Amino acid sequence: MITIARARAQDRPAIESLLEANGLPLDGLELALPTALVAREGTSVAGCAAFEPYGSAGLLRSVCVASSMRGTGVGRALVAAAEEEARALGLSELFLLTESAADWFPRLGYQRTTREAAPADMAASPEFASACPVSAAVLHKRLEV
Known about the structure:
Blueprint: E1 2-6, H1 12-21, H2 29-32, E2 37-41, E3 44-54, E4 57-65, H3 74-88, E5 93-98, E6 111-113, H4 120-123, H5 126-131, E7 137-142
Parallel strand pairs: 4-5
Antiparallel strand pairs: 1-2, 2-3, 3-4, 5-7, 6-7
């Protein structure tokens, strides 16, 4: 059974390992760890997601599911939980950068946009500034309040 919960400090190595194994950046991860969520299967981390708040917007990042769990709904559940956490903090929209899931996120209501559409402080974040290449797709979603 999969459960989704707030990540604990001791989950960081498992999160980093999962991200590295799937080619996702660790740059700036410390900015997102306070909002990180994990999907657990027993005692193992099967997935993760986090966001960085920037005013009323957030940068959804580090959404990753172990290859053995893909196609099971874990990714959708992690994104939904991250969106709920973002709403609870008063965020009204989320942006994300992706090189590999630009076709998956629209199924969850995200729409393509441009880097210029992101708030200036978000655009200066490690994720925008150095972790993701300019060729990464930018997606956006307004959160229902």
